[in-house]
């Protein structure tokens, strides 16, 4: 459903997006590029609890945001991490709102989405959708070496072995050039990989065990 703006006493702009009509929780997030824009997502806590143990723990703990959840009395739950746009996509995946999902994503946004999924421990719930997005990028000849390396990071984070090897094969077979480690690891220090380059050609790119 299209977002509806709500006036506030400050200069902040607030949008409410209904992910599901029978929702009982308003997730509050912000757009990272527009800190004066707040987004509230009407979601079903039961669905989030099933798909993400992080959300389940949030709703089950004896914290104010997790008490007395019901559609009659909406609870506002501020999210400490996550860009509002990506959180909206994640919630649409959770609620099987495929009509509201983008048909494709660019490498950086997809990597950011993967990091968000990792934070909320919901890789299984997004696997099929993420695979579609990855498959849409891998054969695209206009995607740079750096972009493919970012997709490689995504497939590793989301545990997509088939797509990981497809990207790996494409890099080794069809592309030349160097890949800055910071780019390939999406500014993360947790990507355990090894990269061998001979004469500016990628010769080996595999995860370290």
Automatic annotation (TrEMBL):
Highest taxon, organism lineage: Eukaryota
Write down the InterPro entries for this protein, in alphabetical order: SKP1/BTB/POZ_sf
Stated name of the protein: BTB domain-containing protein
Q: Which organism is it from?
A: Clohesyomyces aquaticus
């Amino acid at each position: 459903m299209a977002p509806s703006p709500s006036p506030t006493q400050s200069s902040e702009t607030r949008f409410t997006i209904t992910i599901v009509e029978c929702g009982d929780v308003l997730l509050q997030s912000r757009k990272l590029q527009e800190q004066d824009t707040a987004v509230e997502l009407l979601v079903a806590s039961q669905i989030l609890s099933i798909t993400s143990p992080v959300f389940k723990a949030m709703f089950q703990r004896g914290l104010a945001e997790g008490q007395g959840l019901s559609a009659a009395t909406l609870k506002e739950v501020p999210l400490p991490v996550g860009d509002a746009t990506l959180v909206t996509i994640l919630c649409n995946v959770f609620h099987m709102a495929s009509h509201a999902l983008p048909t494709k994503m660019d490498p950086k946004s997809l990597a950011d989405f993967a990091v968000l999924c990792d934070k909320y421990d919901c890789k299984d719930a997004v696997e099929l959708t993420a695979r579609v997005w990855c498959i849409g990028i891998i054969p695209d000849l206009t995607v740079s070496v750096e972009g493919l390396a970012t997709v490689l990071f995504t497939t590793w984070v989301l545990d997509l072995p088939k797509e990981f090897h497809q990207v790996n094969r494409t890099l080794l077979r069809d592309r030349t050039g160097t890949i800055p480690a910071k780019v390939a690891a999406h500014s993360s220090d947790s990507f355990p990989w090894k990269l061998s380059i001979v004469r500016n050609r990628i010769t080996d790119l595999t995860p370290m065990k």
